[in-house]
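REQUEST ID: PR-0412
SUBMITTED BY: lab tech R.K.
PRIORITY: routine
TASK: structure prediction, single protein chain
INPUT:
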Amino acid sequence: MRITTRGQLAVSAMTDLALRQKARPVALSTISTRQGTSLSYLEQLFSGLRRAGLVDSTRGPGGGYTLARSPEQISVADIILAVESLKADDLQSLESGQAARVRSMTGELWTSFNARVMEYLQSVTLQSLVEQQLSKGVAVEEIPAAPAAASKKLPAKPRPLMARVGVPNSVFALGAVPLLQRR
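STATUS: complete
OUTPUT:
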């Protein structure tokens, strides 16, 4: 089993999301800035996380991502399996005869090792990573609410459309007016 940087970045980004999703969806651009990861790479990761049912996306202004389940229900193994293409057998690069010899001599060792690693990753929840970050003193910035004065401000009333006599109401109507009359 090989866990790449891809899996590590996905776990880190999901922890960031879990820390900050309380008020509203979290934009990938803000995670990108905090994590120092390119936005396009995060988009690829979150596409896999969304397909795996770990995150939900919201489009439009104020959109972003939220966890699809509570942090207690998401394990590190879930996150890694969503973004990694793990192979149970890392012997595929060996010749068939050489791979068979390795399997016959130490196959059980590596199978057991991979099972234990997966068991451990399944035991670590996203919630435990969030608590770990909070205990380290990671500051979770609060998203300011809209100021009270702005919410009391009445929207501007649209100006009523008044029929103006002798004024064309479209470009086409303007073209029909003789040139001398336009001045």
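NOTES: The chain has nine helices and two strands.
REVIEWED BY: pending
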